[in-house]
Write a structure and sequence with these properties.
Layout: E1 2-11, E2 14-20, H1 22-27, E3 33-37, E4 44-48, E5 51-53, E6 58-64, H2 68-74, E7 81-82, E8 84-89, E9 100-106, H3 110-122, E10 126-133, H4 142-147, E11 151-156, E12 163-164, H5 167-176, E13 183-187, H6 190-200, E14 207-210, E15 226-229, E16 232-235, H7 236-239, E17 242-244, H8 250-257, H9 261-280
């Protein structure tokens, strides 16, 4: 069992959870993730390590309650436990002094972009961050991203805060201004990552995305997280999760991620029904 040190909501259905896991806290690097099982009979869910504190022996994850397991995890509070956590897993982000680096986070993807932005800054890059969300209420980690940025921008789809538009529009605006951009990291929904790749492709700007396919064990054994990159099959859990955005088959990734939507919806509805019954009692 692993103890939850703190748990606070950052936005609707998005919770920041700090977990006591000393060994993982000491070893983790930007871009890596953990596999979490909330209960003994629960499924394993992959979650990127948003932050860690080796002295306290804690790792921080940010969870969006979308399916049964993430909703169950978001119901946990400080002082409670999760059954197990395994990590750090995955290949760390490739970090070097590129020059001007743009880190883009879409929605909860900002939680994944944040640790890499920190690492890029430490490596001596001029860091520009673009933090996108549908509305102002869904913007997360604004202050944290500003703290590691030379320039920080917020975009909202509805214009309720910051730049009115998509992260791709802000990125295009930066490119059109004549700025030299040496590296782009984009993490978020699949359509957003694909759109960023198409913005940077004509300019030959190196662009990396962190992929989120269906994952079961996180160690390369099940093959569930296979993705197609430059017409070759790769496993996101061990070969990634970060890949060259201009070589990723996003259609294949999207199709695979939709394979179990029906089952996940049914499972989530069952869990939600049980939760309401328990609350009424």
């Amino acid at each position: 069992m692993y103890n939850i040190v703190s748990a606070i909501f950052l936005a609707e259905n998005i919770k920041k959870i700090e977990i006591k896991a000393p060994r993982i806290a000491k070893k983790r690097k930007a871009g890596q993730f953990v596999m979490i099982r909330v209960s003994e009979n629960g499924e394993r869910i992959p979650l990127t390590i948003a932050d860690s504190d080796p002295e306290k022996g804690t790792v921080t994850i940010i969870v969006q309650g979308m399916g049964k397991s993430t909703i169950e995890l978001n119901g946990k509070e400080a002082g409670e436990t999760i059954h197990d956590i395994v990590g750090p897993l995955g290949t760390p982000s490739h970090i070097e002094k590129f020059g001007t680096a743009v880190s883009i986070g879409g929605g909860v993807g900002t939680a994944i972009a944040y640790p890499t932005a920190v690492a890029l800054k430490k490596a001596g890059n001029y860091v520009i961050t673009i933090n996108g969300a549908r509305t102002k209420d869904l913007v997360i980690l604004e202050n944290e991203m500003k703290a590691v940025s030379d320039e920080a921008y917020i975009t909202t789809d509805d214009g309720s805060y910051g730049f009115h538009g998509f992260v791709t529009q802000k990125l295009q605006e930066l490119i059109d201004s004549g700025r030299t951009i040496d590296y782009v990291l984009a993490i978020g929904p699949i359509p957003m990552m694909r759109a960023v790749a198409e913005v940077t492709r004509p300019y030959g700007i190196p662009t990396v995305v962190s992929l989120n396919p269906v994952m079961v064990d996180g160690t390369g054994m099940c093959g569930g997280c296979r993705v197609t990159v430059e017409n070759e099959i790769r496993f996101a859990c061990v070969d990634g999760p970060e890949f060259d955005a201009h070589k990723v088959d996003f259609k294949n990734l999207s199709d695979r991620n939709r394979m179990y939507l029906g089952e996940e919806r049914q499972s989530s509805e069952t869990a939600s029904h049980k939760c309401r019954i328990g609350h009424q009692q």
